[in-house]
Amino acid sequence: MHNYLDFEKPIAELEGKVEELRHLTGSEEVNIVEEVGKLQTKVEKLLKSTYAKLSPWQKALVARHANRPHTVDYLRDLITEFTPLAGDRAYAEDSAIMGGLGRFRGQSVVVIGHEKGADTDSRIRHNFGMARPEGYRKAQRLMHLADQFHLPVITFVDTPGAYPGIDAEARGQAEAIARSIEVCLGLKVPMVSVIIGEGGSGGAIAVATANVVLMLEHSIYSVISPEGCASILWRDKDQTQAAAEALRLTAQDLLKLGVIDAVIDEPLGGAHRDSGTAIAAVGDGIESALEQFAGLDGGIIKAKRREKFLEMGKQGLS
Q1: Does the global pTM surpass 0.85?
Q2: Bridging pattern class, strands 191-200 and 212-216
């Protein structure tokens, strides 16, 4: 069953009619197959026209869709022999960030990703993908492990942002995020990050300061959420859509700005409608990105990553 977004109501009505017709099997008065085919064609046309002109705010809603594939889905379908590694060896385990060792299409890798959870219990357990300092320190530990054993790092980003609670701040949230970025920049192995849903603020960039940053077509990536931006700049939650426009948070905008390196196409109607196809496309994107670094010296890989982010700063000043 689909969880329809507000702007998908016309699509929901058509698909509802399709389901009604399919339950009329046995009726001799109506050519069920022909009618279903016509309606299905209309659904596809409507999906195509709707998703071709999504506003930034509508893309934010798609990026947050409950049925969108999560890190656990990518681990299941893309990573074989996955062995999870827990804890930061300093304070605690943080389930908002998952990580471990595995094989990606035959190649040994270290994988790190935010996990939001798929139902009420798992969302609470994973803290809705909002990591505390121990989550980022776990990520640092795994990245150091990757560097030590010369393993590429793959990260899946899907978080509203780092957890803003008093306990997280007391344990050094800002320092943990800054240190994670520093570790990313210092790696001598290839690092590929994919924004699979929501890439929010420092909580995202802490594990996305990569050689190659990919984004799914309807994902978002920004310094703050549209809601947070509206409350700070306009002090008005009704300005959320305007904030989404101003933030330039879509994959298409970020590609033009040079913040990301490539956009991965999603199935018609978004990744939540066909997770298998979306995950396979992400796998192809990661494989293509890693191929760029085959045979390169670690120092060169590190220098390329550093130069990439320095260039962004130069463009911002010009």
Answers
A1: yes
A2: parallel
d(CA 227, CA 273): 26
> How distant is the alpha carbon of residue 280 from its chain centre?
14
β-pair partners for 193? 155, 213
Find all residues with CB under 8 Å of 187, minimum gap 6, and list them. Answer: 143, 146, 147, 153, 301, 302, 305
Paired sense of beta strands 220-222 and 107-114, if any: unpaired
| Residues 100-141 pLDDT 10s | 999 999 999 999 999 999 899 999 999 999 999 999 999 999
